[in-house]
Amino acid sequence: MTAYDDLMAFQRDTEALAQVAGRLGWDQETVMPRGAAPQRAEEMAAMESVLHARRIEPRIADWLAQIEPAALDAVGQANLRHIKRDFDRATRVPADLAARIARVTSAAQGTWAEARAADDFAAFAPTLKEVIALKREEGAALAEGRGIGIYDAMLEDYEPGTTAADLEAMFGALRPKLSELRAAVREAEAPPVLEGVFDEAAQMTLTAKLARRFGYDLATGRIDKAVHPFSSGSGLDVRITTRTNALDPFNCFYSTVHEVGHAAYEQGIDSAYLLTPLGRGASMGVHESQSRIYENQIGRSRAFTGWLFGEMTAVYGDFGVPDAETFYRIVNRVSDGFIRTEADELQYNLHVLLRFDLERALMSGDLQVDGLEASWNDLFEADFGYPVDRPSNGVLQDVHWSVGLLGYFPTYSLGNVYAGCLHEALREAVPDLDEALARGDTSAATGWLRENVQKHGGLYEPREVITRACGKPPTEAPLLTYLENKFTELYGI
Known about the structure:
By secondary structure, the chain is mostly helical. It has two domains: 3-155, no CATH class; 164-491, Neurolysin, domain 3. The protein has helices at residues 3-30, 37-55, 58-66, 74-92, 95-118, 121-143, 150-155, 164-187, 200-213, 249-268, 284-298, 302-316, 324-331, 345-364, 372-384, 410-429, 433-437, 443-452, 462-470, 477-491, and strands at residues 221-225, 231-234, 237-242. A hairpin with a 2-residue loop joins strand 2 and strand 3. Helix 1 packs across helix 3, helix 8 (164-187) runs antiparallel to helix 14 and helix 10 (249-268) packs across helix 11 (284-298). 43% of the residues are buried.
């Protein structure tokens, strides 16, 4: 066996163990008994210690030194790129720090959930201080000697090749135009709202049908309920969660479609990459592009909502919406609200930009945890024009900071930007797409995405994935054009 063969055999075992650790996280969020949290924290910390030891295994450096990259094909070179990047990162983070982060963030999930339920940020603040302190320590270790800031070092975990300066420029172009369009929409006559009570068991039945319509393979996946919808796993075990609300079935349906976008990406990766560094998505931004284009440009299109209207009528009978056009307008209604995951397309990115500003300040030390709730509330009122009513609708609504995902939030908006670019290219490639969507047939869209984005997994760098699929580098322009056209027509402004 060659050094490359030895390296890849070792890496496959590491990838398999990482999947086991991920399954522990899935279990914790879905079916784990609440009383098991302290033990689960220790289990997660133990798994992280094992994984960290493998990631800094001295033999990796020896194997890398023996391998001649030019002798490898494109797949081998891409595997090497990922392994070198991960090895460099892992060797910069002390093992005891990695274990402390795993232990604290595992326990913090339960503390956050309890504080959220009680609307008590003060109950969560001490734990969040621990998380932020540990992540600052980690960021400093990752940035040391490289001439980059702590936040840029954290971004590399989720979007390699992107810096805070890149995001500031992109978001700086998005924010004023979104705010202007939002203000115009709020002055226009709003569509009606959906009213009624919608059986939650029936929601789960219909949501499973939606998942299959969007290509989710339930032979290698499953749908469960959780407080915060998420997708977990890769390869042959890719699971999603959703949530139900008797008064708001769209929450369930579109959370599901969103998570199916993530899951379909993982299921669509070339099977030859299973349990290798290429067997997962290129980045969180590219991942989010799949969930957002599934949910919004496809799932909220006039054509597809026409089909969904028929499906809801078949399940619920006359539910108070007279026709498919009214249903389309209701689905795409721009409404005041506090919750990022429930926000409409037009306002969603404003929620993300707020978090981007706050977490950069937390990581730099310009903002302390004790001032976080007040800063959140001030920024929210400035962006949205009304005050936050309670912590669960504000600073406590997201799980991300409790689990240490600093640098993650901006990838949501980056994913929207990528989705805008992909949607423009998709429409050019499949000009009759709406005819299929009106029948509930998403295969032309999902097939194009699988061929041009999903199957490549981690073969290419994030921006290259989008550039290859679209024929040009990504910018915010297609997303802004799409949103302006859609909501100007929908609201008659």
